[in-house]
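Here is the promised in-class demo. Please do not try to memorize the tokens; focus on the logic of going from shape to residues.
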């Protein structure tokens, strides 16, 4: 086999290291917006943020990713990228015909966010498959990466909440509630935690009997406990739903595995719950605010909204109004708009329902060229998870399933370089889990 050029090997090493740097980028971005730009919680929806240092960094990284992909000279990568580029160009032509003007910056920036995540598939499938590690070593490193990422992200939320810093999750007609730390987008950080928590918890439950030493157990439990508490602090509908679903699914799996795997998974689950309760007690003592009252207010807010404004408003947080308006514009746009969309630049505000956005802004052509890779990888993911069904595959199905549903109904994943990054990562992690060899992570065979 021909040895890779030193340049490519250096890039792959950098891409692996970047996985450990990435969790800090959005924390620093939030600190920059909150403390330097003075973008407050009430400004988040309407503030003109413009270019931030982390956005510049990620767009530069996109260029580096693209160079790496082009060096691979795989026609399937290039054809996939060409289809997405065509969807952008055609949507901008349609946008100009539809509105008589173009929002160049908005159009390019929005598609760059989507492309960033697609290119991640191409880059990290090769990086993870080509590091030269055995399957067991690769999975061990990825498991450590998941725990590390959760710990970094959630500690920043817990510290911010205790000190009264950062952003509230909500600031609306019901007042201020929840805390998302310095994360500018509450949907993003919630989606990341929902993606990673089930895998971290299932990993500990599976290994409970094999782990030796108190410190080893703490390293596995601590990220789970901090994440459970961070999701309660965030206090969104998605956060509470994810906690309930994660606890229910993993508890049922542990009970079902009693005969085959013994009491290890069930004991691991119990220790995760106990550690989360103990940590909450410590946070309660350290915080100047009444954490129980804060969490209760967040939990009850959804039922209050449903009672006063209807279930649709409570579930979709007003997105259904934006969707109805933009869908009416789409329908009236004619064949060109149906095929190639209205263009992102034609709209002041996004719907935050990703699949609908692809159809509205890029049309049927964009729906096919932009989403086919996610569909292809997703179908294989579900098939392989059921083929090798166990505690960890169940956890992966849960996390990806929850976030996919969230993305369709009320999330913002595919066009986010934050949560979209980890959405792609979990698909690749799943391919590593389900494959007998690291080469199985590769997107293309042969």
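The designed amino acids, position by position:
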């Amino acid at each position: 086999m021909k040895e890779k050029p030193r340049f490519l090997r250096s890039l792959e090493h950098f891409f692996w290291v970047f996985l450990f740097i990435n969790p800090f980028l959005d924390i620093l971005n939030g600190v920059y917006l909150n403390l330097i730009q003075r973008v407050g919680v009430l400004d988040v929806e309407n503030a003109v943020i413009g270019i931030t240092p982390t956005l510049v960094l990620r767009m530069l990284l996109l260029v580096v990713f693209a160079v790496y992909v082009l060096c691979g000279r795989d026609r399937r990568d290039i054809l996939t990228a060409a289809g997405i580029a065509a969807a952008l160009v055609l949507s901008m032509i349609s946008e100009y015909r539809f509105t008589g003007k173009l929002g160049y910056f908005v159009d390019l920036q929005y598609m760059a966010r989507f492309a960033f995540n697609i290119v991640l598939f191409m880059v990290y499938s090769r990086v993870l498959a080509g590091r030269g590690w055995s399957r067991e070593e690769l999975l061990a490193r990825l498991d450590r990466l998941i725990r590390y990422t959760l710990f970094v992200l959630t500690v920043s939320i817990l510290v911010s909440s205790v000190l009264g810093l950062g952003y509230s999750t909500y600031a609306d007609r019901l007042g201020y509630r929840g805390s998302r730390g310095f994360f500018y987008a509450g949907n993003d950080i919630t989606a990341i935690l929902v993606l990673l928590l089930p895998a971290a918890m299932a990993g500990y439950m599976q290994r409970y009997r094999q782990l030796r030493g108190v410190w080893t157990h703490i390293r596995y439990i601590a990220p789970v406990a901090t994440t459970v508490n961070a999701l309660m602090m965030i206090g969104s509908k998605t956060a509470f739903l994810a906690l309930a679903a994660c606890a229910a699914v993993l508890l049922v799996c542990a009970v079902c595995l009693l005969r085959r795997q013994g009491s290890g998974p069930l004991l691991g689950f119990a220790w995760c719950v106990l550690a989360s309760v103990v940590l909450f007690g410590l946070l309660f003592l350290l915080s100047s605010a009444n954490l129980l009252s804060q969490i209760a207010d967040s939990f009850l807010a959804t039922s209050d909204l449903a009672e006063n404004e209807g279930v649709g408003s409570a579930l979709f947080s007003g997105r259904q109004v934006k969707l109805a308006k933009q869908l009416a514009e789409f329908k009236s746009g004619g064949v060109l708009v149906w095929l190639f969309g209205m263009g992102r630049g034609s709209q002041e505000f996004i719907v935050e329902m990703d699949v609908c956005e692809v159809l509205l802004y890029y049309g049927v052509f964009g729906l096919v060229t932009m989403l086919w890779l996610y569909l292809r990888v997703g179908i294989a993911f579900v098939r392989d998870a059921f083929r090798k069904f166990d505690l960890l595959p169940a956890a992966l199905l849960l996390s990806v399933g929850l976030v996919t549903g969230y993305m369709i109904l009320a999330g913002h994943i595919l066009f986010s370089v934050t949560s979209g990054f980890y959405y792609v990562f979990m698909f690749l992690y799943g391919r590593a889990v389900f494959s007998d060899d690291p080469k199985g992570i590769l997107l293309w065979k042969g």
